[in-house]
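Lab notebook, bench 4. The sequencing result for the construct came back, and we need a structural model before the next group meeting so we can plan mutations. Quick request posted to the team channel:

Model the 3D structure of this chain.
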Amino acid sequence: MAISPDRVQVAIVGSGPAGLSAAAHAAHLGMTHVLIEKTDHLSDTIFKYQKGKHVMATPSNLVLRADLDFDAGSRETILDIWDRQIEENKVSVRYNAEVAAITGEKGNFTIEIKGSEPILAENVVLAIGTQGNPNLLRIPGGDLPHIQYQLDDPGEYFDEHITVIGSGDAGIENALGLAADAAQRNRVTILNRGDSFARAKGANVKLLEEAEADGRISVRRETSPSEVRVGELVLDTRDGEEVIRCDRIIARTGSKPPRAFVEAIGVAFSSEERDAFPSLTPTFETTKDGIFVIGALAGYPLIKHCMNQGYDVVEFLNGNVDLKPADQPILEEKFAGLPGRRSVEDWLEVIGSNVSIFKELSPLQLRELMLDSRVHSYAPGEVVFTRNEPGSSMFAIAQGSVAVEVNPADPSITVPIEEGSIFGEVGLISGRRRGATIRAAEPLVAVELSRTAALKLIATVPSAGRVVNQISIERQLLQMFGSGLTREDVAPLVEAAEVVDVRAGQKVVEEGADDKDIYVIRRGSMIVEKDIGGKPIFLSYLPAGSYFGEMAVIDGSKRSATVKAAIKSQVVRFPGELFNALLDARPRVRERALADMAGRRETNAFVEARKDSFGSAADMYSETAQFLIDNGLGEATDVLLIDETLCVGCDNCEKACADSHEGLSRLDREAGRTYAHLHVPTSCRHCEHPHCMADCPPNAIKRGPDGEVFIDDTCIGCGNCQRNCPYGVIRMDAKPPKKPGLLSWLLFGAGPGPGEASYDWRKKHAPAGQAKLAIKCDMCLGIDGGPACVRACPTGAAIRVAPEKFLSVTKEGGLD
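Done. Here's the predicted structure in C-alpha cell form:
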C-alpha cells in the first residue's frame, strides 16, 4: 500500500511473526504505521524454513494475542494465511526496503532506506530477528563451498552423505526433512556437541529419536567437527578423532544479534557477551527512548511469544500502560503460595535482582524461564531435600539462606549458602543423588529449575553458565582440599580458573615440559604414563575429581610424567603461582598435597628402578591397561571383570543376577572382549557421566549414593537409554511373569528353573500387551551382601571394582 510522506506514529522494522503482529494491531487500532521489509515477501525467517516444514504453536498453555491467526501447520499454510490477512487488514507495508541507519530522538526518528526516501516516525519497533547473522564454522576448511547455512528444500538432495551440525530445532528439523523420503537415499548424520538436546523442543527431540531408532538418521552425541575436507569431515568424538564421508554440510549453529547496527542506534546490551540481548523494560523499550525491541532480538524466539509481544508493544504505544502479558495468569498461579502477597512483577523483580544466574536476563527472558520452573517457600528448619534423595533439578535462592548438613553423623555441623546463590548443581551436572541434606536457615524462597530448564539456561545465557561454572569449581576445590578452607581462600584460584575441553588421547601435560599449572579433572578421566626406553609405560589412572600437576608446581621441577585424556574430558586449569600462594597460607593443605606427591613419587621411583628389567611384562601391563580404557573403563565408576584363569563357565553369575531381578539377567558373561587373562562382560559400567541418563523423558534413570546407576519404575519404555549407551548394556524387555519357587520346580517341574527364563516361557506366560521396559545392572541396589554375580561365583573369578582399583588387577597380572 502507499505510505504517507508524513511522520507515522510507529515504524516496525522486520516482518517476522512479531513485526507482523505489531503492524496488524496498529492497523486495527487505526494508528499511522509502516511495516518495513527488506525482501519482496513477508516473514523472511519462516519463508526460509525448509519446504513443507511443520511449524509448532508452543507453548500450548499460552493464550495467543494477535489480529492474525496462528496455529500449528505447514510453512506454506501459515504464510498464505498471513499474506491474506495482512492485505485484508490494510497493513501498510514497504517491501524491498533495507534500513541503513536510524537517527533522531523519540517523536522524531529518521529511518534511512538504501536507495530510497527516508521514513519519519515517532517511535520505532525493531523486530528484525537474528537469522541474518549465522554463526560460521571456525575450523580448518570452514570456508569450503559444500558448507551451507540454510536448507530451503530437502527434496532437492539425492544419494548424498549429509551432515547437519547443530542440535537445536532448526538442525533437527533439517535432518528429519533430509531423511524423510527413503527414495532420496540420503545418509544423514546430525552432530550434538553435548549429550542432551537442551535447546530443542521436546516434540522435535522425540521425532529425532524415533528416526534414530528406525535407522534413518545417525545421531552423534558428544561430537563436534574439527576439520572439513573435500568429501570428508573430521570429528572430535568422546573416544578420539574419527573421519566420516561427507558430501554436504548443513550448519545450523545458531545466530547472533546484529549488535553493531543496534548499538549504532543508541541501544545498550545487557553485557559484552556475543550472545547478549538488548537491555529492555517490561514494555519492550530499550535504553534509547522511543526504540522498542520485540521477537527473537529480545530473546524470545517462539512464534507465539513473538506475536504476543507485537500485540502488546502496540498497546503500550497506544497508551494502555496497564496491560499485563499473556502469561500473567500462569505466573500468578505459580507465585500464589509465596509469602507476602506480592504481585507477579514484584516477585520477578526480587528473583531477577537477587539471584546471580538471573542478573543478565531481561524481564521477558525471566518470565519465560519461570514458566518452566517452580517456586517454593520454606519455613526455618524445613528440609528442601535430603541426603541420597534422587533429584536432578537445581535451586536458586531468591530470599533467605540454607544450611548444608555436611556430616551425616552430626546434623548440627552445617555450611551456609547465602541469598542469590544456587545449590543442587551436583545432581544437575552428574546425575548423582543428593550429596547432603539441605534445610532452610531462615524464611526461604527458592526457584527450582528442572534439569531441562537449567541446561537450557546454561546453554543459552553465557553469564548464567559462567556463574554455575564458578560456583561448581569453588565447591569442588573446597571439597577436595578441605582443611578448613574458606571461599575467600580459594577466591583467587576460582577467578583465574579456565575450563578446558580435552579430546580423547590429547596430552594435558607432557613429560619433560617446564610448565607450572595445576589441573582438576571435572569430567572424564586421565591416564598417567612415563617414557621408559622410548615406550610409554602406564603408571596410573585418574578419575573425575582428581587433581594433577602439583609436583612441578610445588618443587619447581619439570614434568615427571605425561597425563592424557582416556576419553573426551574436561579439566579446570589453575595458575601454579596462585596454588603455591594457597599452600603458603594454609600449611595443612600443603601437608595433604605433599602426601599425594609422595605416593606419586613412589610409583615413579619404582618404575625407574626396574626400567632395565621391564621388557615384555611392562608391555603386557601397558597394553592390558589400554585395553581396559578402550572398553569403557575410562569413564566407569564400577565395573565387572572376570579373571579367565579362574572362570569355569558355570554361568552362576548370570543365574544369580536373573534370580535377584525378577527373572531377567542384567549381564551376558560370554559377550564382551578379552585381553590376556581379563574379560569385560556385557554389564553396566555405571559411568561417571551416564550416557543413558542424557535423554530420559521421565527422568527415570537415577544415581544411587554409591554411584550405582539404576532405572526406577517410572520408565516409559521409550528406548532412548538403550540407543544412547555406547556399550550395549541396556536392553528392552517385558517384565516377566512370576516364576514358581525353587521347590516347585525341583519337585513338580513347575516353571523354567533357576536363572533367566527362556524367551518362549516368558512370552507364553506374560500378560497380553505388556509393554517393554529398560533393563540394566543396578549393582543389586537394596539387596544385602552386594552384587549377586560376585557372591555366586564359586572360584572368585568375578569381581566388581572401582576405577581407581581395577588397574591393580592388571598390575597383579603382569608387572609385579
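The mean pLDDT is 84.
Will bring this to the meeting.
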